[in-house]
Amino acid sequence: LPLLLLAAASIPRAALGWSTLGGGRGGGGAPPPSSVADRRDFFRTVATSAAATVLVGAGPGPAVAAPPPTASELRRIQLGHSRVSYLLSNWEELTSTCGTKIMSDLERRQVIRTEGGGGGSCDKTPLRVQEFLGYKSTTDPLFKADKLMVRAANLVDPDDLEGYLDAVERYREKADQGAMMAFTSSWGEANPNGGKEVIDDYLERTKVEVEETEKLLRTVMKYLSLEVLPPGKAIA
Q: In whole angstroms, how far apart are CA 10 and each of 150, 159, 199?
C-alpha cells in the first residue's frame, strides 16, 4: 500500500486532538498531555523528529524526503500576519456593524439616550475575527498554517529549532483561543444573564488573544527570515 508519513503536518491536530475548540481546525479524541508544558514538550519532541524524518513513499522503492515549503507557500504566513495586523488596526470597524437595523422612532430615541450617537444602532460581530485567523475558509492564508510552519522547520537554523517549534505551538494555542473567544462572544447576548456587556467583555478578551497571535506570527516569520508586510486584507 502507498505510505504517507507526513507526521510533521498531521500529528499536532488530527492525531492528538489538542485543539482547545474541541476539534478546532483538525479533530481527534486522544487525551491531551496533563499540562501546557507537557503539551509543548511533547509537540517539540514529535515535531523535531518529524521534521527530520518526513518521508513520502509511493509503493516499492526508496522513500524520498518531503520538500520544504515553496516561497509561494511561505507567503501565506506573511499574508496571514498582514491580515491579522489589519484586523487589530481596524478592530472596532471590523467587529461592529452599525445602522443596519430598522427601528421605530421610540427605539431610535432610546438608543440616542442610552448609547449616544446620532440615532444609529451598532451590533458587535465577533465572528469576523475567525475570518482573519483562518477558521472560516480553506482559502484563507492561515488555514492550517501550523502544519505549514512545521513543514518549514528544516529551513530553520538547527540551533534555533527548539525555539521555533515552541513559537509554532504557542501560535497554534493562541489562534485556537482567539477563535474560541470570538465564538463565545457571539453568543454573549443569547445566553442566560447575557447582554451587550457580556459580548463586549469576551470581545476584549478575544482581542488580547489576537494580539498575542500577531506577536507569535511575527516571531515565526523572524525565524524563517520572512519580510513583514504592511497590514492588509489580501488573501493572495
A: 10, 24, 34
Per-residue pLDDT of the chain (236 residues; tens, 9 = 90+): 332 333 334 334 333 333 333 345 544 444 445 555 555 555 555 555 555 444 444 444 444 456 889 999 999 999 999 999 999 999 999 998 876 555 455 444 434 333 444 445 677 888 899 999 999 999 999 999 999 999 999 999 999 999 999 999 999 999 999 999 888 887 655 555 656 777 788 889 999 999 999 999 999 999 999 999 999 999 98
Length of the chain: 236
pTM of the model: 0.68
In the chain, where does DSSP find H-type helix? 7-10, 36-53, 71-89, 91-94, 105-115, 128-133, 145-151, 161-186, 196-223
Query: How far is Cα 15 from Cα 116, in angstroms, rounded to an integer?
Result: 51
- 81-99 in b/e form (b: 16+ CB < 10 A) is bbbbbbbbeebeebbeeee
- 123 beta partners: 97
The Cα–Cα gap between 218 and 167 comes to 10
Alpha carbons 24 and 75: distance in angstroms, whole number = 23
Q: In sequence order, what are the residues at sequence separation of 6 or more whose Cβ sits closer than 8 angstroms to the Cβ of residue 166?
A: 40, 44
Q: Among candidates 49, 67, 186, which has minimal Cα distance to 129?
A: 186
Closest CA to 168 of 156, 184, 180, 186: 156
